[in-house]
Amino acid sequence: MGTILKGMSRVRWHELTHAYGSAGDVPGRLSRVAWGDAGTSASALSDLGLWLGELAVFDATVEAVPFLWDLAVTDTVTSRSGVVELLQTILEHANPPQIEVQHAAHRAVLDGRNMADVLTRDKDPVVQAAAHELVAAIDNHVCESCRPA
C-alpha cells in the first residue's frame, strides 16, 4: 500500500458512522481515490462527499480528514482538486446534535492549513484554484463549535 493512506487499517471504521450508516465502506472508497483511474477516483470521491460532508459531518469524517489531506498532496492522485473541495465542504458543514463531532471535523481541516498553502503553489492550476478557495475558507472560518470558549 505504500505511504499513501498509511495507518488507515488501524481505524475502527465499522464502529464509526457516516450519513448512511456504518463507515466500514470508507477505506475502500479512500483507496479508490488514491489508486483509481480518473473515473474510479471521481466516483469514489462523490460517494465520500455524500457520506462525509455534504449533508453533515460525522465521526467517520473526523477520522477521514487526515487521509483526505494525504490524498490532496499526493501527485499521483487523479482527483486532487476534488479532494481539496471536499475538505472545504467538510469545513462548511455542521452537525448541531453532535457539536463536538462538528468541532473535531472542522479542527481536522483547519489543522491542515500549511498543506493548503503548499497546494496553492501546486503545478496543477485546478488544484491551485481549489486550494486558494480552501485557504480563504480556513482563514474566514467562524462557526459556533469552533469559537473560543
Shape: globular
Radius of gyration: 14 Å
Query: Which stretches are low in confidence, meaning pLDDT under 50 for 5 or more residues running?
Result: none
Count the E strands. Answer: 2
Distance separating the two termini: 41 Å
Classification by helices and strands: mainly alpha
Number of domain units:
1
**Strand order in the largest sheet:** 1-2
**Main sheet?**
2 strands, antiparallel
Q: Work out the strand percent.
A: under 5%
Count of DSSP helices? 7
Helix content: 55-70%
Element-level helix/strand string = EEHHHHHHH
What number is the mean pLDDT? 93
What does this protein look like?
This protein has 149 residues and is mostly helical. It has one domain (11-139). It contains 7 helices and 2 strands, in the order ββααααααα. It has helices at residues 26-35, 38-54, 59-72, 80-92, 99-110, 113-119, 125-139, and strands at residues 17-18, 21-22. It has a two-stranded antiparallel sheet. A hairpin with a 2-residue loop joins β1 and β2. α6 (113-119) packs antiparallel against α7. The radius of gyration is 14 Å and the shape is globular.
Topology (elements, then pairings):
Blueprint: E1 17-18, E2 21-22, H1 26-35, H2 38-54, H3 59-72, H4 80-92, H5 99-110, H6 113-119, H7 125-139
Antiparallel strand pairs: 1-2
Give a quick precis of the structure:
The protein has 149 residues and is mainly alpha-helical. The protein has one domain (11-139).
